[in-house]
Amino acid sequence: MKKLIYKEIMLAMHPTAPIFLLLSAMLLIPNYPYGVIFFYTSLAVFFTCLTGRENQDVSFTMLLPVRKRDVVKARFALVVGLELCQMAVAVPFAAVRQHMGLPGNQVGMDANIPLFGLAFVMLGLFHLVFFGIYYQDVRKVGKAFVVSSAVIFLYIGAAETLTHILPFLRDHMDTSDPRYLGEKLIFLLAGAALYLVMTLAAFYKAVRDFEGQDL
Residue 31's CB: how many other CB atoms inside 10 A? Predict the structure, then answer.
């Protein structure tokens, strides 16, 4: 399994992936829909899968003495690793944004703790939709990305809108840290829990779909 993950990092991962991590610096932009920043990691996943299709990555991997389940597991390990790295890289920029003395984000959620909870849910949705389609037929990576991107941007639009109209989000979550810290941490943990549940659901479905393919 370790060798498969190493292969994913060294051979399969698209070179734009680490570059997109640095786009976490966009949290310093005033009045910006910060959810879009986390979309770039899903774009890196798409580029990785697309390049893999063109390079016959799946066909090559299936020639190795590995189980289909482990092939899926290694890809999920890469994706989750990238997403957690982006979260880690984004935290310092969010902290700097909090201390820049600028007004709160007028577009939607500020660069604060609840933003990461919303981002976790968004990425979990991406796993469900993208991998739910991709592993039915690994050649149809474009269809998987188009549908998952539509879902992501609908989610971002809904999240930003609800931030303005729901009193709990507007008055408690969309505030500078550490105000309402306890509630914000619960919100973050709830988002992380949903991310975990959706990622596991996506993984088990992907395994079933991929094992059913005749490659």
Answer: 11
